[in-house]
Specification:
Strand content: under 5%
Length: 408
């Protein structure tokens, strides 16, 4: 019985062992004398990737990494494994690729391929982005990776391409926030609409619907009785979207508030004309197909600034309109005052009135010009036990105090 089980196990596992042994033999077969075996392994793995055999190629590279840990091709092997997952695609492949790219940057931060690895890490999330009304986890992760690239590698030749990708990601993020903001706006939920609209205006200045964001923000502030705070948003609408049909309405709002109407610069006009010429206007067929597609629409993305860190400080403009904040008047609740308390007052447990600006005579400190007798009286009064002190209680009870409970 035992012998039969042993033979059965040998029949099952022997073919796999033979195939694995033949695979390792094939990796080092036909190696010329004096050739570098790690280089031969790398070449065979890349050839496997070229023909779409990703599992075999990754196994070959893993053999190289384990067998030759000091190889000069170690970084190239790690990057090739990440690239194989990236080319394989799919949710699992891109997830593994992002982890491999970040692992490569950790071990080889100064390698010439590090900028490309960071860019590919962001693209792993970018390729998984859905439409604006879907979950935005991948879009947020892609924006984080692209911002990290622009911060760490500002002189890389990939900067232009990364900025373009970041604009597309921000377009999707802003569109999702815009739909939520208009949901609140249409239902007169003004505080919720205000926070959403301000967030878009500050964090996504390159949003293709930015003119409507500025207009609805101003209208929301008007409904909240904050009309003076709406002026900077009308200013930005006129300055940043000079070709928008809402410019005339924004100018009218500023005129009614007796605010100066700004004039857009030549650079802003040129940028607006360039954006208008590059923007696509899909026909009915493309709009219908896009409605059934799960991929996001990047066709309306503008070519404006890219926000990396702090958003536009529009609240600074509002503070200038309202003037500098005045210092609050001191009150008894938020003002602390120190008073000198005598030993007599402290021992007698007299309460001190914190609202009184002048100390009472009982709590006034002894004058330095007073006589020695007055000082001795104060010390004697301080050392004198009060009726509520433990010493006075003990004296009141006396030695036969228990008889008072028996004799009325």
């Amino acid at each position: 019985m035992l012998l039969g089980a042993f033979l059965l196990g040998g029949v099952i596992f022997l073919p796999g062992c033979i195939l694995l042994h033949r695979h390792h033999e094939s990796l080092t077969a036909n190696v010329p004398l004096g050739a570098q075996p790690d280089k031969i392994l790398l070449g065979k793995a890349l050839n496997e990737f070229k023909h779409g055999r990703y599992d075999v190629g990754r196994l070959t590279l893993q053999t190289l990494i384990n067998t030759y840990p000091d190889s000069e091709y170690l970084s190239q092997s790690k990057l090739a494994i990440a690239d194989s997952y990236y080319k394989q695609g799919g949710v699992s492949g891109l997830t593994e690729a992002e982890a491999e790219y970040k692992d490569f940057i950790t071990f080889f931060p100064n390698a010439p391929e590090a900028p490309m690895a960071e860019y590919r890490a962001g693209m792993c999330h970018f390729r998984l982005i859905g439409k604006a009304d879907r979950d935005q986890t991948e879009a947020l992760a892609a924006a984080t990776e692209f911002k990290e690239f622009l911060t760490e590698y500002p002189n890389s030749p990939l900067v232009v391409e990364v900025k373009g990708r970041l604009r597309e990601v921000q377009e999707v993020l802003a569109q999702g926030e815009y739909e939520i903001a208009m949901f609140y706006y249409d239902r007169d939920a003004w505080p919720a609409a205000e926070s959403r609209l301000k967030s878009i205006a500050d964090n996504y200045p390159n949003f293709s619907e930015g003119d409507q964001i500025f207009w609805y923000t101003g209208q929301t502030l008007t409904h909240l009785n904050k009309k003076p705070e709406a002026a900077p948003y009308y200013d930005r609408l006129i300055m940043e979207f000079p070709l928008s049909p809402l410019v005339a309405d924004a100018k009218q709002q500023l005129t009614e508030m007796h605010k100066p109407v700004p004039t857009p610069t030549k650079a802003m006009l040129a940028r607006a004309e360039a954006d208008a010429s590059h923007r696509n206007h899909p026909d009915l067929l493309h709009r219908t197909l896009g409605a059934f597609s799960g991929a996001p629409d990047f066709s309306q993305t503008l070519r404006g600034p890219v926000v990396l860190g702090s958003p536009y400080q529009i609240q600074t403009q509002i503070a200038k309109l309202n003037g500098p904040p005045s210092a609050p008047a001191p009150t008894s609740r938020n003002t602390l005052s120190a008073q000198t308390v005598s030993m007599a007052s402290f021992a007698a447990s007299k309460p001190i009135d914190p609202t009184s600006s002048k100390s009472s005579p009982a709590s006034a400190p002894p004058s330095n010009s007073g006589s020695t007798q007055s000082k001795q009286n104060l010390v004697h009064q301080a050392n004198k036990p009060s009726p509520s002190s433990p010493a006075s209680t003990k004296k009141k009870n006396g030695k036969f105090h228990f008889l008072k409970k028996l004799i009325p």
